[in-house]
Amino acid sequence: GKPSLAPFGTTIFAEMTALATEHGAVNLGQGFPDTDGPRAMLDAAKAAIDGGRNQYPPGPGVPELLDAIAVHQSRFYGLTVDPRSEVLVTVGATEAIAATSLALCEPGDEVVTFEPYYDSYAASIALAGAVRRTSVLRFPDFAVDEESLRAAFSSRTRMVLLNTPHNPTGKVFTRAELDLICSLAREFDAWVVTDEVYEHLVFDGAAHVPVATLPEMWDRTLTISSSGKTFSATGWKVGWVSGPAAAVAAVRAVKQFLTFVGSGPFQPAVAVALGLDNSVYAGLSSSLEAKRDLLVAGLQSAGLEVSVPGGTYFVVADAAPLGAVDALAFCRELPARAGVVGVPVSVFHDDVDAARTLVRFAFCKKDEVLREAVERLSRL
Ligand code: PMP
Ligand code: GLN
């Protein structure tokens, strides 16, 4: 029968941003930057609009963006990707996740993923009529537990839905963890769909390792990314999928009936952004790394135990010292009580006990905003 989406009500991001507005609170909930991305990219969008690129773009994406994505995969990762058959532009990574799940899974197929998981994973798996099988990442190190991961696989496993760097934990999967996941995917003949939207937001001099570059993985991997995070333009919703041509064609077939196409004038602008110098990419990650340090130190000085993230926009802290018993209830009260918004990690879990008192705070904000949030939390 039709999968029930009834359990998926208002997303936590919409709920928490509404509370932030209502209470005039500092919003460290929803992950979006409060400064704009590269000037050249913004100007290119204006030029595209003024240049009349306001009608339906081609189904797979505009040619200059497909080319720029292929060049990006080669430039940063040494991957050779055919821009015409192995790349598809989507309406953000969100559409890519939904379209990939729908393309690869039949009802009853199983999808292995880690929890906490990004909220759209559970919904997309349900839309496809598939069943999620999860392995828990536990605070504070969020290490992969081999036994529970292996137990999540079965003869019905169709795909692994992976996310590195990982939202909401900020974890960057280690090479050994990725090798384990890939070897299980090969053993159970599963696809790996890897959400790498934070690929350029990795800290401490570490390098992002795309799953598609690992031995024997290209043929069974679909890689998802988005300009939202890399170029601080979350509202533009320009994402993409790349991988073997037949699988990309299957995703494209689904995408036609979800949105057909999207983000017309923003596509050529993202093509310009992808071609910018390394210093632009490095500048964003080093600025975020400094913000991570600022927020981590502030949360620690407010008495919280923190898991220091290796990437992303997010840090997870244990709010028990601030009186949290149930993170969801705590986060619903926090805007009125302290004028700060965070997101309860428990909403990204099936096993909510794994994250009872854990709160995710976003640090992709101006320094003064982060300082104000910390000061308010310190007063609690
Ligand atoms: N995947 C992850 C892990 C994310 O954090 C996000 C956005 N926060 C998305 C996908 C969605 O990306 P987009 O906005 O490009 O749809
Ligand atoms: N991905 C962003 C986050 O994790 C929010 C995206 C959304 O609001 N759906 O905070």
UniProtKB/TrEMBL annotation:
Q: Which GO terms describe its cellular component?
A: cytoplasm
Q: Name one GO molecular function term.
A: kynurenine-oxoglutarate transaminase activity
* Domain Aminotransferase class I/classII large, first and last residues per copy: 26-377
Q: Which cofactor does it need?
A: pyridoxal 5'-phosphate
For this protein, the parts annotated as crossing the membrane are: none
Signal peptide range equals none
Instruction: Offer one Pfam family short name for this entry.
Output: Aminotran_1_2
Which CDD domains does the UniProt record give?
AAT_like (cd00609)
Q: Keywords for this entry? A: Aminotransferase, Pyridoxal phosphate, Transferase
InterPro entries according to UniProt:
Aminotransferase_I/II_large (IPR004839), Kynurenine-oxoglutarate_AT (IPR051326), PyrdxlP-dep_Trfase (IPR015424), PyrdxlP-dep_Trfase_major (IPR015421), PyrdxlP-dep_Trfase_small (IPR015422)
Q: Does the keyword Transferase apply?
A: yes
What's this protein's family per the entry? Belongs to the class-I pyridoxal-phosphate-dependent aminotransferase family.
Q: What is this protein called?
A: Putative succinyldiaminopimelate transaminase DapC
Q: Which organism is it from?
A: Pedococcus bigeumensis
Instruction: Tell me the lineage of the source organism.
Output: Bacteria, Bacillati, Actinomycetota, Actinomycetes, Micrococcales
